């Protein structure tokens, strides 16, 4: 499945595309159609598009972290990032400037606020898979940084 990630959808309340009067159909993405993302990549992680550019309000991806790997330090701009996974950890630079870490266990959820710099870490011997939901916006935003508090990587 190829998705157009350049032109985000817009909700409308008037005209022929009125979302309230003519809601879009339910969209189903079978596991076999979840594809490696063409945008929003972070070194050290495999990001796969599941629900991308199908809604102007929200998007969903899978993040796969191979054993003993970590992502680059990054943030997701104005998007709020919600994650559920069974392994791995989220590391961020806390309010005191000291690195903080939370381990993800099966059924756990974490909310990462807009512009919060963080890393995904998998110290384990098995792949970690996370379901990621982001809003607002139908396309994932990832801004990789040159370390904590660093400038944007080009």
From TrEMBL:
Signal peptide coordinates: none
Region Disordered: start-end pairs: 1-39
Annotated Cupin type-2 domain residues: 62-133
Gene3D superfamilies: Jelly Rolls
Pfam families per UniProt: Cupin_2
InterPro entries per record: Cupin_2, RmlC-like_jellyroll, RmlC_Cupin_sf
Biased composition (Polar residues): 30-39
Protein name: Cupin type-2 domain-containing protein
Organism in which the protein naturally occurs: Cyphellophora attinorum
Lineage of the organism: Eukaryota, Fungi, Dikarya, Ascomycota, Pezizomycotina
């Amino acid at each position: 499945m190829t998705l157009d990630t350049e032109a985000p959808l817009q909700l409308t309340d008037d005209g022929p595309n009125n979302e309230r009067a003519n809601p879009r159909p339910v969209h189903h993405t079978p596991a076999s159609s979840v594809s490696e993302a063409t945008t929003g990549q972070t070194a050290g992680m495999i990001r796969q598009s599941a629900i991308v550019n199908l809604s102007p309000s929200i998007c969903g991806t899978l993040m796969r972290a191979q054993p003993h790997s970590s992502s680059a330090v990054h943030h997701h701009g104005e998007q709020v990032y919600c994650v559920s996974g069974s392994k791995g950890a989220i590391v961020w630079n806390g309010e005191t400037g000291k690195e903080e870490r939370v381990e993800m266990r099966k059924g756990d959820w974490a909310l990462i606020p807009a512009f919060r710099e963080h890393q995904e870490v998998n110290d384990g011997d098995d792949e970690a898979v996370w379901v990621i939901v982001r809003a607002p916006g139908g396309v994932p935003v990832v801004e990789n940084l040159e370390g904590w508090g660093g400038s944007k990587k080009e």
